[in-house]
Amino acid sequence: MKKLTLIILTFLIYKSANAQDLLKPDSSRYLNLRYIEFYRQNHPLSYIAPLGELGSKNKYIFTSRLTTSFMVFGSKSSRLAIALIPDFTIRMLDLHSKPVYTPDFRIGGALYYRLNDDEKKYKYATLGFMHHSNGQDTTHRPVVGTLNYKDWDFSTNYIYGKYNWGKVRSNGNILRSSLNQQLEFKSNGLFDYDNVIKGDYGFTRIGYSLSYRTYTYFYDLLTSGDYKEDNNRSPDRNDDQAGWLNKERFRWNLEASYAINKYDNYNFFAVKRRLNIEATAYYSPFWMRQTSLMLGAGYYGEDPYNIYFKDKYAWIRFGIAVGFLKYTAKAKGKNHESQGLN
After folding, report:
1. How far is Cα 298 from Cα 276, in angstroms, rounded to an integer?
2. How far apart are CA 97 and CA 84, in angstroms?
3. For this UniProt entry, which residues form the secretion signal (predicted)?
4. How far is CA 205 from CA 104, 150, 159, 302, in A?
């Protein structure tokens, strides 16, 4: 009987210590789950833009990008996380039948790995693979020296590696702002591709992106459990109750990439051909949840939209974007295990 009591007591002490360890912000299991939020929030946002890219040679009804990350593995027991990533873009032309000649399909996966033990100054690495196609199956260039923009079959594959790091400012449970940065290396040359684009396409690119975000902290009636109008009270740094949410209010993104491989007709310093750069501002009013208003401007030296890659132009885009824009408030007890993953 004494042995049984001792075993039960030891087990209870172990479980209690384990639970206490999970509550610590610097515990491995808490951080493994916390970093999943960074992986998802740093994923590009989906958008729909009326009139498309103003400045391109074509007139569009709208352009739209639909992308997300399906986290197929994200465990509190592992620094490693795995996602499947679809990334689809369409441009509806302003022609008689409103066609979408060549949709842009990317599908692949990514491995994420947490590099440090700090949620305020996070660091992680990503290794991924993507297949890029326009879904067509026909001849390459029916007229020598020109591109068939209507139904040419564009296809390539690429791998990429990313290093992400950032700094999150908070006051207790109240998120104030975050500064997020990324370096990327992308290469198409190791996999099968259409020989038609050889010497004329940015097979290898290096990229950098910067994102500054601010957050608001508000009382949400739908998740509070009670229905008291408590939005008039200023949040306190010790708030740790159901109903208080951290919501992203403003995001400013700067993205740039440069093709470093050899072109047949352009040298390494042909910036107008090799450089892609864009800056976009997102604002999410209080009456939007995961959605925000969007205004962006940029320059494509190489249009990323499949067979349109030879087009280069400055552009403006406005519309509505959606993505992972909200943190939940930190909760007590075992809720740490699911906090932020809804």
Report:
1. 8
2. 34
3. 1-19
4. 19, 27, 11, 11
306: left (phi over 0), alpha (psi -120 to 50) or beta: left
Integer Rg of the chain from CA: 24
Task: List the beta strands (DSSP E) in the chain.
Answer: 46-50, 60-67, 70-74, 80-93, 104-114, 123-133, 155-171, 174-187, 204-219, 244-259, 275-283, 291-300, 313-322, 326-328
How far apart CA 110 and CA 160 sit, in angstroms, is 9
- What is the length of the chain? 342
Closest CA to 38 of 157, 136, 167, 159: 167
The mean pLDDT of the chain is 83
Residue with tokens 């020296």: 145
Tokens of 211: 């994102």
Domains and CATH numbers, the chain: 2-337 (2.40.230.10)
User: Mind listing the pLDDT tens digit for each residue in 201-248?
Assistant: 999 999 999 999 999 877 665 555 554 455 555 555 555 455 667 889
pTM of this structure: 0.84
pLDDT tier, 340 (very low <50, low <70, confident <90, very high otherwise): very low
Q: What are phi and psi of 182, to 5 degrees?
A: -150, 135
The rounded distance, in Å, linking the Cα atoms of 55 and 74 is 41
Kindly tell me the sign of the dihedral angle through the C-alpha atoms of 19, 122, 125, 203.
positive
